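Team,

Forwarding the record for the chain on the shared tracking sheet. I've put the sequence and predicted structure together so nobody has to dig through attachments.
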Amino acid sequence: MQKLNPPDWNLDHLQVDDSAPEWFKTAVNTSVRSNYVAVNGCTIHYLTWEEPAVSLQSQQKPGLLFVHGGGAHANWWRFIAPSFMNDYKVAAIDLSGMGDSGKREKYSAALRAEEILHVLKAAELGPKPIVIGHSFGGLMTMRFGADFGEKIGGAIIVDSPVLPESEKASEVPRRVLSVQRYYPTFKIGLERFRLLPAQECKNTFIVDFIARHSLIETDMGWTWKFDVKAMGANRWSEPFHEHLANMKCPSALIVAENSGIVSAVTADYMSDLMGPESPMIKIKDSHHHIMLDQPLSFIEAVKDLLADWGKFRHIKEMV
């Protein structure tokens, strides 16, 4: 079992850009705790946010677990999660081979579903928590919902592509990483940071924050926190259309208006697989990385779903 050192959020190179708006500074400076749990021989890191004094009604609400995208990490939720902590117990996972979690010799969606299950229990998120997964994390949430969906209150899939046959022929090839890159300085590594899939983002202070938390210093120099073995082509080699259709829990879909990987046809196909009781929300002026483009609209969309999934009879657009 890997012995990992908890991250130190006070390091100089991790500090927030002064140009960031106050809401963002307040969110990322909210007290957060690093935790670890062992899952099938791998140390899994996850974040929890300290709970304020809450009402009995709030204590009865389900906990929330946020699951990041491929090659990303729990810090992608540091500016999102605090918006929910007054009403919910909140956690964010680092999947194996990513973020501050340990590495495996082999990775699979089945193992990552177990990681999610263990973190839900270790973080004490209650009997029927909600899992919210973005991109690759949404795909892992589909597998989790198919395997363990009866244990949760619902799953929110955020811009995760499950393509119909009609879309597969024109699919943009997804980048497969095979070489671990090292940089002589943190500054050079930071300059090399790119969003995958590529997109522009006007909120440069968010991209800067995420990039700073994506690098780690090693004996060979600065490198990305993810294990390149976790970023191979086999990470998509699952029947995710079957997992999506077979989730044993209520589900909802959030899509970006200008997503580069979830077209309107794909969104409709996924919605059909999920069933007529599963709402779909489209967030305007957003690309695939919705929480970077429209963080406040994303928060509003999730809160609306948590408040009353039933009121969305079928599609709502978030401005």
